[in-house]
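== Folding the chain ==

***
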Amino acid sequence: MGDNNKHKFIKNSRYFTICVYILITVCVGAVLLKAIWEWASTVETFSRIIGVISPFLIGIFIAYLMNPLVKSIDKWILFKLFRIKKQKIRKFLSITVAYVFVIGIVIICISTIVPEIYQSLKSIYEGASDNYNKLLIFLEKVGKEHPDMNMTYITNLAKENSSNIINFVQGSIETVLPFLYNTSVMVISWTINMIIAIMVSCYMVIDKDKLLRNIKRLMYALIKKERADRLVVVLRDCNKIFGSFIIGKTIDSTIIGIMCFIFMSMLKLKYAMLISVVVGITNMIPYFGPFIGAVPGIILLLTADWRQAIIFAVLILVLQQFDGLYLGPKILGESIGIRPIWIMFAITVGGYLAGPVGMFLGVPTVGVIAFLINKHVDKKLREKNIDM
């Protein structure tokens, strides 16, 4: 009887936990190895998943952007200005006013910008031949006025390739215009996705407090209270860094785009709306954005008048200096807190991984990673009683 008790299996929760961790590690490692080994299939599967859930991801992003506006309307207009005390009424009104305002602005912008862009593209197509002839006349004039400058080779080269260049420009526009027309077929699909995204964002803004409460409950249920408290603080700081950059950069780029349009209109430069939209969008990318946006603008204006291209290049340089030295710091402040070298690294890696979107989101992502590393380093130094 004693021998039977000696060989009886004794349950040990510690060893059981270790076995579970080992099993989970092996399974995760196997999944990762398979994903890396069959990378093309992994990317395709991931793209399909993103395509299916894209309305929900867009909805989350819209809710993330709308939340500060909803809070501002609730606090400054409904509570302090109109003295509405009931929170439910304020919440309903603030969400309604915010969404009506933003959707109205978007509709006005689309109805104004799209026709202007279409007219600009049409003008480029129709004026390609005339503008090229003006370029040839200009080259011949420069050659006559300045005999010391050998313009014969350039002029002959331009004449020999005139038909090819005009066909290329017109062919490009002929390709772009049908593309824009054909994409209108996808409007219904995109409209449905956007309606779903807006509805998702509305529900997320409405149920924001409940969602955050449920996430907190899950965190405190799974990990110790002390760690959960620290995690809540860290996540709040990360959200502040990420949100401040995205919202601040959106406001900054919108202002730069509007300023570009105003100055181009005052200087009577062609294609003002089309170029200003490109400048405003590309300005979302730090450092390189203004120059990326300037290149297509300069090329377009060169087809019309080289002097306009030079004026536009100077304008972009002035706007970039104004944005970098004054407007950007005023709006963004120290929201990222990383050095320029790391911003360039984030843009390069983000652009390689996800194109223009990666170039934009890479900066706040690296900012959050840098913040977490710095926080961990500070903690380790305090534990070692090192003051640095």
